[in-house]
Amino acid sequence: xxxxxxxxxxxxxxxxxxxxxxxxxxxxxxxxxxxxxxxxxxxxxxxxxxxxxxxxxxxxxxxxxxxxxxxxxxxxxxxxxxxxxxxxxxxxxxxxxxxxxxxxxxxxxxxxxxxxxxxxxxxxxxxxxxxxxxxxxxxxxxxxxxxxxxxxxxxxxxxxxxxxxxxxxxxxxxxxxxxxxxxxxxxxxxxxxxxxxxxxxxxxxxxxxxxxxxxxxxxxxxxxxxxxxxxxxxxxxxxxxx
Length: 242
What we know:
Layout: H1 4-17, H2 24-30, H3 34-40, H4 47-68, H5 74-85, H6 87-96, H7 107-111, H8 118-136, H9 138-158, H10 165-177, E1 182-189, E2 196-203, E3 206-213, H11 216-241
Antiparallel strand pairs: 1-2, 2-3
């Protein structure tokens, strides 16, 4: 039985989601943490829904990426998907709709800051997506996800901050050329405690970009970023010529 106060909380969340549940209980289930279920002596908590929601999100995000990036190979698409469905990314999306305030937590989890834990928020968002899927089908889950999070996902996909260009480039070159780039330090400048490294990237036995950074890893990332931009631009140009 859902109390009047709880129903009001769920109504506020539904308004943020832009979706009204036919069966309100499934939403409440998706927001019930195991700690609360244990204390309340009930069996329903969101872990099974989390499992289903993970799969539903994979379908939603994979379909979007497959359609949006027609020239990308499997490795590139996998990398982009990971940026969206990682725990940190899902937690940020959950915060966007203030999902933490709607959770049912046990006393211990409440005291330990469960409402802002990334792992907990990510799991809860997956459970909510599963609840929508069960209540209204895949189309409803897709509509809610993109209705709420299109802007945030687009920003995450296009932002350069924190991107692993070495990883992206390695996956792309393996798929497209059957080989991987190599990196060699060609010069070091500055005192030992404040060196600047110059790293040359080589692909197909041809010397390419020079990366510069305060560490070897940073210089390698800089070189990879440059070549990644070139290859990505060439891929777009080839697509336009088709």
